[in-house]
Each structure stands twice: as structure tokens, then as C-alpha cells.
């Protein structure tokens, strides 16, 4: 199967992001983690505006140090670096992974007939007759996101990584609750998909942090978590259960644990969120 998977078209991808904030696009055949590579680069170089894409990641990183790997050329696996100076709005940092999830939703919708949805904070799900899981949503995860804050010569930098399952077979999926675009019935060119996601991410980052109201409205419209009863697991083992009623102004999910008693939960405070209704 790997031999049949087409490589990314470097030149077409660079042309696809012309006019966006991405001033450098580099494609490598293999690396451990694109996020780790850009975080390391950011420590000594002004790399804001850089995009690093790997045809094969051998040690991809997710939230809470989770690692994953997929076959070569079966995903869009990339990381970007962007300035993150929010000295006057530090709470805006919480929106970075959320707006990235929104950009992935928009990129997939642009290049396929699928209608992905977001599981708070930033998992991208696909729904359909064959996508039932034990997670309460009836959807399966097609993409995940990791945002890491670091510091470079010009100040704070956020490195945002994302991985979209494109052509993985059922046997190649990392977990049964995952899915690929191919398995969902969408045959998509990875170069076109990567370009669409990067353009959408550039637009969303242009809104950050000055126009978070518009970002929040669009995120809420795409969020499948709202209106469901959820169980939120914390790193120390604590659990919160109730109705997910809102995404607040700083990107936290608001859980109504009892009538009139709302608990806002930040993405960094959550190990897992599960729908229970």
C-alpha cells in the first residue's frame, strides 16, 4: 500500500500558500516529530512563519506525551510556527489549539464532501453510519492537534502540530476509535488537503488574538460537544460530570454539574472528555 501512496508535491504546496503567513514550507521524507524539530529550531532561530511537513513521522507527539506512528505518506503530518506574544492577553493562548481544529475542519470540508465536527478541545471527528464508537459521540477521530509554547530570539513562539489520517486502512489505524478520510469515502490529494488546511490556519491565526469573538462563534457552531452530558477526567484522577453548556470567551468548556452550578474547564487541565448521554 505504501508504494501506491503518492508523495507530496513540494512546489504545488508552496504555490498553494502564496499570500499567506507561511514564508517557508519544507517537506522531509522522515523525522521523529515535526513539532519537536520546530520547537528545537525556534530556540535559536526566528522561525515564525515556517511549515515543516513529514512524509513519515516515527515518534509523533500528542497531548499528555502520547506517541503515535503511521505508515509513510498515509497522513498529512505537519507543524507550523507562529508568533505568540500575548503579554496583554495571556488567556488568548487557550484559543490556539481550538482555532487550529477549526482550520482542519475547514480544510477537510474544502477538499472533500465530508462534514467534520470538533470534539472539545481539538479532536476532529467524522460521523456516519459506520463510525460508531464507545465514546458517546458516534464519531471517529480523523485528526488531532498539539500546540506547544516556546521562546525564540524574537519572543514567544507557538509551535502547532497536526496529523490528519488520509489513507490509513482499518488495519493501520492506531486505535479502533480512529478513522481515515479514505475509510470515510473521501479520496483526497494530500497536497491539496495540506494547502487548504494551511490557508485556513493562516486566516484563523490572522484573527488571533484581535478577533476572538468571530473565532469563538465559528468554533461553537462546529463543536459536537455542546449540548451533551460529559464526564471530564483530570490528571489527578478527579472527575467532573454534567452538561456541556458553553465554550467561554477563553476557550474553556463550561460544564453544568448541578442547576445553577457551572464549572469551566481548560484544555490543559483535562486528561479525557467523554460523552455520557
Automatic annotation (TrEMBL):
GO molecular function: biotin--[biotin carboxyl-carrier protein] ligase activity
UniProt keyword Transmembrane helix, yes or no: no
Broadest EC class assigned to this enzyme: ligase
Assigned keywords, A-Z: Biotin, Ligase
Annotated EC: 6.3.4.15
UniProt keyword Ligase present: yes
Domain BPL/LPL catalytic, chain residue ranges per copy: 11-209
PROSITE patterns xref list: BPL_LPL_CATALYTIC
PANTHER family: BIOTIN PROTEIN LIGASE, BIOTIN--PROTEIN LIGASE
Descriptive protein name: biotin--[biotin carboxyl-carrier protein] ligase
Native species: Williamsia marianensis
